[in-house]
Design brief:
- It is built from 10 helices and 16 strands.
- It is an alpha/beta fold and 335 residues long.
- It has a single domain, classed as Aldolase class I (TIM Barrel), CATH 3.20.20.70.
- It has an 8-stranded parallel sheet with strand order 3-16-15-12-9-8-7-4. The chain has a 4-stranded antiparallel sheet with strand order 5-6-14-13.
- Helix 2 runs parallel beside helix 3 and helix 3 packs parallel to helix 4.
- The longest helix is centred in the middle third of the chain and has 21 residues.
- It starts with a strand and ends with a helix.
- Bound molecules: flavin mononucleotide.
- Flavin mononucleotide binds next to strand 6, strand 14 and helix 9.
Length: 335
C-alpha cells in the first residue's frame, strides 16, 4: 500500500498512461483487475489530439521493447471525464483511484481543463458514498500532467525546458492551494544528464506554500516517459509486426524517430528514478521531501519491479508489458 497525498494505491501497482488505456473497455478492464491499485488514463487534451498515419507502435524482436510515435489521445478531456465518472460511480467490490493524465499546449487550456476536472471531483463527492479507505470520494480522482511526450512535432517536452514548464506548474499550484484534497503529479522524461534532476527538483520547490506547515502542490513524479529520439529499423521489429510485400519501409515507425519503452530503456528509467529519489530525499524543503516517485520504464517482470522499488519507487507502473500481455501484465508483476 502507498499513500500519495490523498490517494491510496493498494497494491502499489498500476498502468502508466498509454495507448492501451485509451477507451472505456480498456479502462474498465484495468479498473476491474484485482492486481491494479489504480488506473491511469491515456493523456487527454481539452479538444482531443489529431492522430494521423504517422502515429504507430511496434514491438522489437525481444518482444518487450516498444518504439512509438503517438501523440496524445484523440478523445477529448470531456470523454475521459464521462468514462471516469461511470467507472467510479458504478458499485464495485473494491474502489480504486483513477489518475487522469492530461496535458495542454498553453496555460489557458490547462486552466479550462482543471475547471472541468474540479467540477467532476465535486460531483463525485455528492454521488459516491464515502467509505473507510476513501472518506472523501473526490480523492478517487487525481491528476498527472504529462510534461514529457517526445513525439509532438516542433513541441519539445517542457520538462526539458523549465521556462516552458513553469507557467503550467503555476496554474496547477493555484488549484492545489485552493483545494488541499487534490493530488497532482507530473509525468517526467528520462534524464541522461542527471544534473538536470536537481534543477527539476529545485524548480518544484519554488511552489511550496504554507498550509498549516509547508506543502508542495506536487505529490508525485512519474519517472519515466519513453526515451525520445530513438530509432529502430524494420528488421529489428517482432516479425508479427512486419508488413509483407515489396515496399516494406526501412524504419519501424513512419517518422523514423520515436519514443523507446520496455526493456531497452529500463536502465535509464531506473537511473532517473534513483536520481529523483535521492534529490527529493536530500532537499532542504520538508514539503519536497514528501514527493513520491512512481517508477515506470522497462517493468516487464517481477525482478524489474523489484529493481524499481530498490531505486526508490513507491509504486510501479508499466505500459509496454500491458501492450504485450494485456491485463495479465499485472498478474505477472504481482509478488
Ligand atoms: C504506445 C504508447 C503510448 C503511450 N502514450 C502515453 C501517453 O499518452 N501519455 C504518457 O504520459 N505516456 C505515454 N506513454 C509512455 C508510457 O506511459 C511509459 O512511460 C513508457 O512507455 C515507459 O514504460 P514501459 O517501459 O512500461 O513501456 C506511451 C507509451 C507507449 C508504448
Amino acid at each position: 500500500m502507498v499513500k500519495i497525498h490523498t490517494v491510496e494505491i493498494i497494491p502499489p501497482l498500476l498502468n502508466s498512461s498509454c495507448l492501451w488505456a485509451s477507451d472505456f473497455e480498456q479502462l474498465r478492464d484495468l479498473y476491474d483487475s484485482p492486481h491494479t491499485g489504480a488506473v491511469t488514463t491515456r493523456t487527454a487534451t481539452l479538444h482531443g489530439f489529431k492522430e494521423n498515419s504517422a502515429n504507430a507502435v511496434v514491438f522489437s524482436a525481444d518482444q518487450y521493447t516498444t518504439l512509438n510515435s503517438y501523440g496524445y489521445s484523440p478523445r477529448p478531456l470531456a470523454q475521459y471525464l464521462e468514462w471516469v465518472e461511470t467507472l467510479l460511480s458504478t458499485p464495485s467490490p473494491r474502489r480504486k483511484p483513477i489518475i487522469l493524465s492530461i496535458t495542454a499546449s498553453n496555460p489557458v487550456d490547462l486552466g479550462q481543463m482543471l475547471i472541468h476536472i474540479q467540477s467532476l471531483r465535486r460531483r463525485l463527492r455528492e454521488v459516491i458514498p464515502p467509505d473507510e479507505i476513501f472518506p472523501d470520494s473526490s480523492t478517487l480522482l487525481a491528476i498527472e500532467l504529462n510534461t514529457s511526450c517526445p513525439n509532438i512535432p516542433s513541441a519539445p517536452p517542457p520538462s526539458y525546458h523549465l521556462p516552458s514548464l513553469r507557467p503550467h506548474l503555476a496554474i496547477l499550484a493555484d488549484v492545489a492551494r485552493e483545494d488541499p484534497s487534490l493530488t497532482i503529479g507530473l509525468k517526467l522524461p528520462p534524464y541522461p544528464d542527471v544534473t538536470r534532476v536537481t534543477e527539476v527538483v529545485n524548480c518544484l520547490s519554488e511552489y511550496t506554500f504554507e498550509a498549516e506547515g509547508p506543502r508542495n502542490p506536487f505529490a508525485f513524479v512519474t519517472c519515466t516517459n519513453t526515451l525520445g529520439g530513438s530509432l529502430l529499423f524494420t528488421d529489428q521489429v517482432d516479425s508479427n509486426y512486419i508488413s509483407t510485400g515489396d515496399d516494406v519501409p526501412a524504419f519501424a515507425v513512419p517518422p523514423a524517430i520515436g519514443g523507446l519503452g520496455g526493456i531497452q530503456m529500463h536502465p535509464i528509467a531506473l537511473g532517473t528514478v534513483l536520481a529523483f529519489s535521492r534529490a527529493l530525499a536530500a532537499h532542504g524543503d520538508p514539503a519536497v521531501r514528501k514527493i513520491k516517485v512512481i517508477g515506470v520504464g522497462g517493468v516487464t517482470d517481477r525482478a524489474a519491479a523489484r529493481r524499481m522499488r530498490a531505486a526508490g519507487a513507491s509504486a510501479v507502473a508499466c505500459a509496454t508489458l500491458l501492450g504485450r500481455e494485456g491485463i495479465r501484465a499485472f498478474e505477472i508483476l504481482t509478488e
